[in-house]
Amino acid sequence: MALIIAGGSASPQPLFAAESYTNFRQRASVSDEILTSDIAEEIRFGREVAARIIARFGMYDNPEIMKYVNLVGNVLAINAGRPELEFHFAVLNTDEINGYAAPGGYIFLTRGAIANMQDESELAGALAHEIGHVVEKHAVKELNIKGQEKTSVSNLAMLIGGSSDSARVAFSQAVDKALDLLFKDGYKRADEIQADRDAVLFCALSGYAPIGLSRYFARIDKVKGKQTEIIDKTHPSFKDRIAWMGGMIKEEGIDTGDYKTAKDRFTKYITLLK
């Protein structure tokens, strides 16, 4: 699997004064104990989940769009608090409106999702939500994906780290469960709330309009049918999600007046989407 990785900065400056910016950055970091074996296993597991996602939809064959999405995504990832991971961003070739995150930093948006966006802050918001799932280790915790350095781990976690036939079967079964989480069952409501709140935080830290994701949700809430079938089934209502993101902005006193949407740059790239 080859994902295009691009460097550079695509975002405006952060929206906070120095003290607030420092506090937000601290709150964006993850305090969980991190072991090298856990990171390696998370990446290995996530790479297989990502491969299955790509096999399901196919990659969108447009290098310019891929480069652009990576530029925006990597700016957000810098402020996400998981420096031990190298994030990868890609576009899936489907009209479905959705985004997916695989453990280890593999982030996908669908072609249909991007086609329904109007500016770069909306793109950033959707990417930041998926980054939030990785940062908070929602799938990792749900499926207990760990390496072998810890003694108090489940049999499944120990098997995943092994090389025997039973280990390979366990690994494959765990990947199947991860795909069910993405396509059928959905994350816990609390996890979706956390990822949405993280999206507001990561966008604000990166200088993007923190209401970009809310505006995008309000628009696709009006789209019904096959395009939104999976997201409607696996996520809470858009109205609820817009409400709790608004609460986050109010609680943290985030300035929504002096933000950047980078609409012109987004429009230049979106014309390449077919």
Instruction: Kindly report the average pLDDT value.
Output: 83
Strand order of the main beta sheet, please? Answer: 1-3-2
Unreliable spans are 1-19, 150-159
Largest sheet: 3 strands, mixed
Based on CA atoms alone, the radius of gyration comes out at 18 Å
What's the β-strand tally? 3
What's the order of the H and E elements? HHHEEEHHHHHHHHHH
Overall geometric form: globular
**Ends distance:** 23 Å
Helix content: 55-70%
The share of residues in extended strands comes to 5-15%
Supply the number of helical segments. 13
* Total domains: 1
Structural class: mainly alpha
Q: Layout of helices and strands, plus pairs?
A:
Layout: H1 18-28, H2 36-57, H3 63-78, E1 88-92, E2 99-102, E3 106-110, H4 111-115, H5 120-135, H6 138-143, H7 155-160, H8 165-185, H9 189-206, H10 212-220, H11 229-234, H12 238-252, H13 263-270
Parallel strand pairs: 1-3
Antiparallel strand pairs: 2-3
Helix pairs in contact: 1-9, 2-8, 3-5, 5-9, 5-10, 9-12, 10-12
Structure description:
It is a single chain. This protein is mainly alpha-helical and 274 residues long. The protein has one domain (18-268). It contains 13 helices and 3 strands. A 3-stranded mixed beta sheet has the order 1-3-2, sandwiched between helices. Strand 2 (99-102) and strand 3 form a beta hairpin. The protein is globular, with a radius of gyration of 18 Å. Residues 1-19 and 150-159 have low confidence and may be disordered.
